[in-house]
């Protein structure tokens, strides 16, 4: 899906077992890319969007993602919209969901200490190799070599959406134009797919995004506005 993936396994396990765990994570993420990439004409999501695949013929994963996207459309008053670009593009949910599934599988397989970073969407569990909680830097929206804040924790899903490489690329689905007002939105919770979608929706809302995020009592957030202000919830797990 046009992004880089990194995995840090901090468990005290034999190297062969760690290698096997890592191989399984990347096998799953390659499977997700083959199924959901909007850059690949032969992906399942593209074939479904062109009408070449019926819903009844779709994989269980595609049906699940479509159901979740429909639920998120309702929960965000339509600001999370998998059809905002005109065609089907569930990437605003899929990237976080795929990483969350990978982390859940790692946990079930015995990896209680790991950090998975999928293009800036990060899922951490347990402790780092130093024996301390993980530290997750949130990239500065104008300086790729800097962070605007650092989060810490042992069970965090951290998703960031905004105009980094591609500028204002998140569309306001009501107007069909790039959303303005928020340069980046970071949402912190325990489910990375949900956090990813909420971050995307808040960016699409523009100036209304901060107040909407304030109402999500089970999530924390940090926002950088287009005019450079940093806003964040009071209980954000800052390092």
UniProtKB/TrEMBL annotation:
Its EC number is 2.7.1.180. It catalyses: L-threonyl-[protein] + FAD = FMN-L-threonyl-[protein] + AMP + H(+). This is FAD:protein FMN transferase. Its cofactor is Mg(2+). One of its GO terms (molecular function) is transferase activity. Gene3D superfamilies: ApbE-like domains. Keywords: FAD, Flavoprotein, Magnesium, Metal-binding, Transferase. Transmembrane segments: none annotated. It comes from Micromonospora thermarum.
């Amino acid at each position: 899906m046009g992004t880089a993936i990194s995995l840090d396994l901090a468990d005290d396990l034999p190297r062969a077992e760690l290698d096997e765990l890592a191989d399984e994570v990347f096998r799953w993420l390659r499977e997700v890319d083959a199924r959901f990439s909007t850059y690949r004409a032969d992906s399942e999501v593209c074939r479904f969007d062109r009408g070449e695949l019926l819903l009844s013929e779709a994989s269980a994963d595609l049906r699940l993602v479509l159901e979740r996207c429909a639920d998120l459309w309702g929960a965000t008053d339509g600001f999370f919209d998998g059809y905002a670009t005109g065609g089907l593009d569930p990437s605003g949910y899929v990237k976080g969901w795929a990483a969350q599934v990978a982390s859940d599988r790692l946990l079930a397989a015995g990896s209680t200490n790991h950090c998975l970073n999928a293009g800036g969407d990060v899922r951490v569990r347990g402790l780092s190799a130093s024996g301390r909680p993980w530290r997750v830097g949130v990239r500065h929206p104008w300086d790729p070599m800097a962070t605007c804040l650092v989060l810490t924790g042992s069970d965090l899903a951290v998703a960031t959406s905004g105009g980094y490489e591609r500028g204002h690329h998140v569309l306001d689905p009501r107007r069909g134009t790039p959303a303005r007002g928020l340069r980046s939105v970071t949402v912190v919770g325990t489910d990375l797919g949900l956090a990813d979608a909420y971050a995307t929706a808040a960016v699409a809302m523009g100036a209304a995004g901060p107040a909407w995020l304030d109402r999500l009592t089970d999530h924390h957030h940090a926002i950088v506005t287009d005019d450079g202000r940093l806003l964040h919830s009071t209980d954000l797990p800052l390092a």
